[in-house]
Amino acid sequence: MTTDKTSTAVVNPEAAKGADIAVDPRLLVREQGLGGYLTEFKRKMRGGDLGSIPVIVGLLIICVVFQSLNSEFLSAKNVSDIAVTMVATGMMAVGIIFVLLLGEIDLSVGSVSGVSGAVVAVLSVTHGMNEWLAVLIAIASGAVIGAIHGFFFARIGAPAFAVTLAGLLFWLGFMLQLLGDTGTINLDSDGVVGKLTTYYFADVAAAYGLAAVAVIGYFLSAFLDTRRREAVGVPSRPIIDIAIRTAVLAVFGFGAAFMFNQYRGLPLALVLFLVVLVGTDFVLRRTAYGRKIFALGGSVEASRRAGINVTAIRVSVFAIAGTFAAIGGLFWASKIAAANQGSGGGDLLMNVIAAAVIGGTSLFGGRGRTWNALLGVMVIVSIQYGLALEGIATPINYMITGAVLLVTVVIDSITRKTQKTAGRA
Amino acid sequence: MVHVSATPVLALRGVSKRFGAVQALTDVELEVHAGEVVALVGDNGAGKSTLVKTIAGVHPIDDGVIEWDGRPVQINKPHDAQNLGIATVYQDLALCDNIDVVGNLYLGRELRKFGILDEVEMERRSRELLSTLSIRIPSVRIPIASLSGGQRQTVAIARSMLGEPKLVILDEPTAALGVEQTAQVLDLVERLRERGHAVILISHNMADVKAVADKVAVLRLGRNNGVFDVKTTSQEEIISAITGATENAVTRRAARNAEAQK
């Protein structure tokens, strides 16, 4: 149908008149101009719609505290190292965010990342396979493993928690079996995997160029969107708003680029991570597929009635989580230049989930963005590095990370309560 | 002003439906014309929901004929009903709380441009649709969770209008709504009629039925128990048809006595 046809079919003139004067006193439409931002911001605060504010405040606090303890913390080398280290966990967190959006959990991502590292090591080192091919097979095996979990969850109806817990154990054993008796296979640090975390674009232009592309790209897409909205007469973002956002992005973008250029240049790992973030964010918010994932996180029954293939979406989301777990595993293997028995174990799984949640993804489903992975993982890795600079041992690190996670979950829960009372949950 | 066409949009002729040993519907007749609101009333278990589900294609009928625009049709799947132009708004809302109004209206049939969601066009059409239906909501870009129960129900009904259906089935649209919210929904039902849609309204609330319906079809124990013109029928008559009060102890005794005297 076309709504054009329906609009001419209005029989009741009163109804049409009513549309023009439809101003409800409870209308929450934002006033134009800068004053509007302040009222909008206050309203959001009261309504518990905090967005990324808590995590950004948290990051600032972390920076201030550690910088005052040790001026090395914000040095170019440290910032660059943090940026590279966080990519492994961050990639896996991106996958977890897809699952969390469904309101489910995947506990197997740590083990799957270990399998991925082991697959690459065994194929390329032990069997001498082309490393690119080995990388592709490792990523594909992550996708297949995820799809298997998804099948048992979506098709058979087993709880995702239990299925992926079983996966955690099974794939851990599988990895150990692959690695064999020696338990460690060293990777060529000049190979494809090795370069993932060791390659830097040393040319100063690379970092500044990327920052410029990001800023210009953001401005153009926002500006063109506004132009289009104005053309068809739906509310649009004022130009001043776009200008402010672009300016903030430019400050951070060029600031980071400056930092990286002080050390070894723009890290390849970070570029790949940013590409993944932009890509996944686009998929989630601008495609019908992404809309379906959010819909499933909101109401499974409503999604089913809207004709969404619930099983297919669920299986695909778990496959995505497996894929990103495998990609994360490659970065992990690259970082330690080996696949060993400890890969994918320890606190990795917990850090991945914590990163997604600290970044602002709701554990209750239907709320979050993949950019949350960046913010969350920055918090976690910054704490690790800050404490390492102070020479504080791992036990304290765990305790602090645990406390940060608890604070985040408390904020998430309180936010939901406030949102419920404000009718915005 | 009600325009009633000669051929009913939907006509059920002698429709029956069994579930195992249970005879849910027996020889049910129902006619709905364009621009007409037919209220379907009956006690719990009278077969209202079953009847609606047969029309919506959830349960195929066992016997009888369904006529659409005067032609007999087969409705075996929900998809068949949708293709004919039948939209059903179920009692429990089928909306996602976390998605905004535009997203919910177009859920499962998003407009796309080169594979990318065409948000601007969806928003424009949503605003147009909501304003032609005089639906008042704060903004089309707020999540459904922010809306009141009545506003959500109006969004759910508006969503069914996107397919430009000829027949809209509303299953208890005002259950669980407050006074003002009920009024909003009833206003919307009238607007559907004014725009020439045929409407089947299931309701327990006689006040609602009297307010917006043109005809009342009463079901009792899976059978027709009368079709009444709302304007000329009193509420008591309808209720007695629903409860079968015409057939009470007194009438039965009278009937027995009459038989005995023969």
TrEMBL record, chain A:
InterPro entries, sorted: ABC_transp_permease
Principal location listed in the UniProt entry: membrane
Compartments, as annotated in UniProt: Cell membrane
RNA-binding is among the record's keywords: no
Keywords attached to this entry: Cell inner membrane, Cell membrane, Membrane, Sugar transport, Transmembrane, Transmembrane helix, Transport
UniProt keyword Lyase, yes or no: no
Transmembrane intervals: 50-70, 82-102, 109-126, 132-153, 160-179, 199-221, 242-260, 266-284, 312-333, 348-364, 371-389, 395-414
CDD domains: TM_PBP1_transp_AraH_like
Membrane topology classification: Multi-pass membrane protein
Domain of life: Bacteria
Function: Part of the binding-protein-dependent transport system for D-xylose. Probably responsible for the translocation of the substrate across the membrane.
PANTHER family from the UniProt entry: ABC TRANSPORTER PERMEASE PROTEIN YPHD-RELATED-RELATED, XYLOSE TRANSPORT SYSTEM PERMEASE PROTEIN XYLH
Entry protein name: Xylose transport system permease protein XylH
Species assigned in the record: Streptomyces clavifer
